[in-house]
Amino acid sequence: MEEFAGKVAVVTGAASGMGRAFAQRFAEAGMKLVIADVDEIGLERAASEMRAAGHQVLPVPTDVSKLSAIERLARATLSQYGSVHLICNNAGVEGYLDGAIWEATDKDWTWTIGVNFWSVVFGVRTFIPLLLANEDGGHMVNTCSMTSVVKARNMYGVAKHAVLGLTEALDADLRERGAKVGVTALCPGIVATRLFQGSRNRPPELQNEVPAPGAAAGRELRARMHERLSEGMPPLEVAETLFEAIKEGRLYVLTDHDWDDQIIARNEEILSPRARDAEPG
Ligand SMILES: NC(=O)c1ccc[n+]([C@@H]2O[C@H](COP(=O)([O-])OP(=O)(O)OC[C@H]3O[C@@H](n4cnc5c(N)ncnc54)[C@H](O)[C@@H]3O)[C@@H](O)[C@H]2O)c1
User: Fold this and answer.
1) Which residues are marked as active site?
2) Which domains, from first to last, does the chain contain?
3) What is the pTM of this model?
């Protein structure tokens, strides 16, 4: 995608952090914005700030873990602006960090995988046909993570590996069909956002009745990670990197090189002789 001015961008998770920054960057490029989030107050605040800066923006309260909500988001976009060219499936939560992976409940899985993975499946199913219908195509960004390319360490990592796989499969299908639709798998490292306060948006019906045995340790880990993120990259810097990547049509976008050793170590271990049956002789 090379031309941005006058086109329409949809960004999920836009009340906070990176989504908020992406919306800002696209608006500065002259795009009309649709911003979506489950945090209605934060969403309204973001919309007011953007309007005050002279940008065109439509806030649409959306729970991205529900197909019906994503479909409503697409309908709201089309009825307001008549088309869509850029969609960022960006909303996410840190999810279950309260024990070993086998100790997680159905509710932990439903929340973590619903917001981080199913949301992207629903985004692909709903928005790719709309982008394909444009004469000049469009672009989809799926916010993955550095955890998508290093060894998965928790449920969040499981979800983010899946988002990367989905994005690669999507890219392959679009290329095979010669579509004018580009795809980017954005893999941020440590970015100064509220990701590790994601539980603020966990819906009541997906809260565990009995706290997990590791709930206290999970709270401490979240607090430590929140501190660590607060020293991370500013979201607007990621937005700038992403904007250039969309222009260039890049599939993989890593925000930094801090994780290179872990990426190499994982792939070396996968390719090591120990990972395979011993070669005969
Ligand atoms: N911050 C980092 O270091 C980092 C690193 C790699 C990847 N990411 C990814 O970046 C994306 C953006 O997160 P962020 O870091 O800006 O965190 P953030 O918490 O600041 O923003 C996430 C937004 O998603 C929204 N959200 C949560 N559940 C939702 C739901 N069910 N429906 C709609 N919106 C919902 C939140 O209200 C919030 O506004 C996420 O996918 C996250 O996994 C973040």
Assistant:
1) 156
2) 8-275 (3.40.50.720)
3) 0.97
Helix (H) or strand (E) holding 222: helix 215-230
Residue with tokens 């580009």: 182
The one-digit pLDDT tens for each residue of the chain (281 residues) are 989 999 999 999 999 999 999 999 999 999 999 999 999 999 999 999 999 999 999 999 999 999 999 999 999 999 999 999 999 999 999 999 999 999 999 999 999 999 999 999 999 999 999 999 999 999 999 999 999 999 999 999 999 999 999 999 999 999 999 999 999 999 999 999 999 999 999 999 999 999 888 999 999 999 999 999 999 999 999 999 999 999 999 999 999 999 999 999 999 999 998 877 655 54
Q: Ligand 1 center to residue 93 CA distance, Å?
A: 5
**Residue (of 186, 223, 198) closest to 15 by Cα position:** 198
Give me the count of residues in the chain: 281
Q: Which two tokens stand for residue 48?
A: 């007011």
Binding-site residues, ligand 1, Cβ < 6 A: 12-13, 15-19, 37-39, 42, 62-65, 90-93, 115, 143, 145, 188, 190-191, 193-195, 198, 201, 229, 232
Q: 277 alpha carbon to ligand 1 midpoint, in Å?
A: 41
If you ran DSSP here, which 8-state letter would residue 200 be given? Answer: G
